[in-house]
Amino acid sequence: MRWSPYAFVAPFFLFFAAFGLFPLLYTGWASLHRVELTAPTDMEWVGPRNFARLLEDEFFWNALKNTFTIGIISTVPQLLIALGIAHLLNYKLRGSMFFRVAALTPYATSVAAATLVFVLMFGRDYGMVNWALGLAGIDPVDWQNGEWTSQIAVSTIVIWRWTGYNALIYLAAMQAIPKDLYESAALDGASRRQQFVHVTVPSLRPTILFTCVVSTIGATQLFGEPLLFNGGAGATGGADHQFQTLGLYLYEQGWVNLHLGRASAIAWTMFLILLLIGAVNWLLVRRLRKST
Amino acid sequence: MRRTVILAVVAALGAGLLAGCAEDGEGPGGSSANGGGGGKGRTTITVGVFGAFGLKEAGLYDEYMRLHKDIEIKQTSIERNENYYPQLLTHLGSGSGLADIQAVEVNNIAEITATQADKLVDLGKAEGVSKGAFLPWKWAQATSKDGKTVGLGTDIGPQGICYRKDLFAKAGLPTDREALGRLWAGDWNKYLAAGKQFKAKAPKGTAFVDSASGVMAAITGSSARRFYDGNGEVVYKTNPAVKQAWDIAAAFATEGLTGRLQQFTPAWDQGYANGTFATVSCPAWMLGYIQDKGGAAGKDKWDVAPAPKPGNWGGSFLIVPEAGRNKTEAAKLAAWLTAPEQQAKLFEKRGSFPSAKAAYSLPAVAGAEHEYFGGAPIGEIFSRAAEGIPVTIIGPKDLVIAQNLADVGMLQVDQKGRSSKEGWDAAVKAIDNALDR
């Protein structure tokens, strides 16, 4: 009996070792070699050269910058909207179950399907967005080719998909807030708005931090939306690489240009960036705990 | 007692999961073990292709299975070659997950021939293959330096110019395909001149050509030496043929003759549906696409004329990996699928133009007319183009070079309004980064 818990958890660790740890280590090993996808067994040791050249690789820096900007303009509005929606869903309303399921529907939609619809909507010549702008007397926008416009369009897809998901997480946390806090706030004469700002948001702090971290990780790995937003060309992320993210650049190096070693170095750099984000989060949580 | 039960359950679950994974890992090739379903002793041959390849759609598998009762053919398809090809390489590298027959796009065949030949069956020696039936240059493209033929040609992409008769008439250009062929014969600059003439009186909201990148692909497809020289060196930067193609295509963009579209995107399809551009350089395989996207509204409006210079764009090969389970049967099938008679059927049903020269005299090709394109004698037009195509030198990174020139460089000139030089520099930078290991 003493060993049975280990037997229960063993499958996870076995699979993690096979499909998580081994690829991670192998990628690290490959990143120190010159190796091509046409001959993956033919490796030539180059040491940290693949990492060193990233420092002077303007496509890498461009991708890092794009990942950062797209991450900001998708995560910030997304979490704010999610908070608002969760607050509304938290009211007693008829058919609340329907609205909760509806909020989660975009999350259940496949990236590919959603993105293809958005590509049509953001079309230059016949897109719905430009048509609507036209009604308001605004000239058509070339969404795909502009630097900001393309990033906003990609962010819109991300926001659409993930807002409901985050809203439900916030809603779950909100429902755990003791009702008497609101009652006493109401007795003290706090309006709904003031209750939201002074009761709900402080109580949600750990949850907000959690969603921030998860969204940041998601934003760092952003791949499907920008890939499919660029219908014709695949991994270039637009004519000027204007919406090429790190994930897309990794894919281009590894699976279009077939340079496994360089792609592995990008993968490991992304991994290190995520570890850094994790460390910052840990520090934040620690400070937060001290302050309360 | 209880403990052993629990352990047994865990072990069973784990084993089940592992088995599931193992089966999955086999990929398309795995089905041959348990495939067939019906009769005993049937051999299942798997075929891996990209896109709507056409072999299945043209009924060739069904016909082969009728002729060979003991064979069953299964096909797996991945929509885009950009996703299909890397997977094929990883599968070749690991020697697993391969279909018995795999399709390879012409832009990848040089790399396959140069780097993967030892993992592939020599189809030049396979049963039923006749070298003389193929166009010599097509045969040479899949033959390695030491004489091993790793791929059999399916279709090629001889090019014409597809054009809208109604828009040409409104702009005061001739609408007869022979007259147009003569108008721009021999020189892409004459095509450019026709574009300028079109623009002067063009109906509002229409452009002469869909995209500058399309023009560039057509021109580079008509020169023997483009991105590589005979010694396998990358020469696109200094090759005057590439420079000329670039300049003419860029002129289309800067003169405002293009619809500023990118090929194979939803916006391009909408351009066909709404008739916003008058011409497109069309390899034989594109006619079906145009018909598909142009729909009923485009009927009797499109026609096809000879291109200024004969060129090739696209086409594919079939290869048989050594790691496959049914190599001999697969090679036989590949030989049958690429035999002139079958290539003619593929052309008849799907418009993929035969790479087997011997097919050109067959009635299905020689007498072919395309109803949607005003009854144009496409068999004759494309046969003539196919025979005039120069023996193109292709290199391992052709696709990467072509794609960056089109989707980075020329797209910047066409859609972002950059200068020709800025676009070229951006493309060169991207290609240098891609080629440098």
From TrEMBL, chain B:
It holds the Pfam family SBP_bac_8. The keyword Signal applies. InterPro entries: Bact_solute-bd_prot1, SBP. Residues 1-22 form the signal peptide. Keywords: Signal. PANTHER family: ARABINOSE-BINDING PROTEIN-RELATED (PTHR43649), SUGAR BINDING SECRETED PROTEIN (PTHR43649:SF32). This is Carbohydrate ABC transporter substrate-binding protein. It comes from Streptomyces marianii.
